[in-house]
Design a protein that fits this description.
Radius of gyration: 15 Å
Oligomer: single chain
Helix content: 55-70%
Number of domains: 1
Strand order of the largest sheet: 1-2
Largest sheet: 2 strands, antiparallel
Number of helices: 8
Structural class: mainly alpha
């Protein structure tokens, strides 16, 4: 199965609908795939770097159209034992804010700051607020409580 088919199956399994090619949908796909790989160990083979909106994969960006088409055609099934665990993680994030894309952006950014940035960041919350001053401190703090226990234990970013 192609990577993009696996991404479509992941989104389907998590109950995430992608309708159309806009920034919000692209952002959701980028952040969900980053979180699945970094925090839940699903190897989809995408490489991520830090960009203005947090973790971003050029390869994943190029495959977005194929992901949408695969979802539109029903997609496949993902055989991955941690789907339920990630679904609960996403559901906890959804309860924090009204804007799913923003909450996922915060979560993925915090995860990257505590796991994949060199030199290591001692305080991911403060660093994210420094980089993205428009975010609400209270929302970032609530997202951090969810992300920290799943993505950052043992990485030095415990806060």
């Amino acid at each position: 199965m192609a990577r993009y088919s696996d991404v479509a199956a992941l989104l389907k399994a998590l109950g995430i609908k992608i309708e159309g090619d806009d920034l919000r949908n692209r952002l959701v796909v980028q952040k969900v795939v980053y979180l699945a790989q970094a925090c839940f160990g699903l190897d989809l083979g995408y490489k991520f770097k830090w960009y203005s909106r947090g973790p971003y994969s050029r390869g994943l960006g190029r495959e977005f159209g194929r992901i949408v088409k695969s979802m539109d055609s029903g997609g496949g099934e993902l055989e991955w034992g941690r789907v339920g665990e990630m679904r609960m993680f996403i559901d906890r994030l959804r309860r924090i804010g009204d804007d799913e894309a923003e909450v996922l952006e915060i979560a993925a950014s915090l995860a990257m700051l505590c796991r994949d940035i060199y030199p290591p960041v001692q305080d991911p919350v403060a660093e994210l607020l420094r980089r993205k001053g428009f975010l609400k401190k209270e929302v970032v703090g609530r997202v951090w409580e969810v992300v920290r226990s799943v993505c950052c234990l043992g990485t030095g970013g415990e806060h």
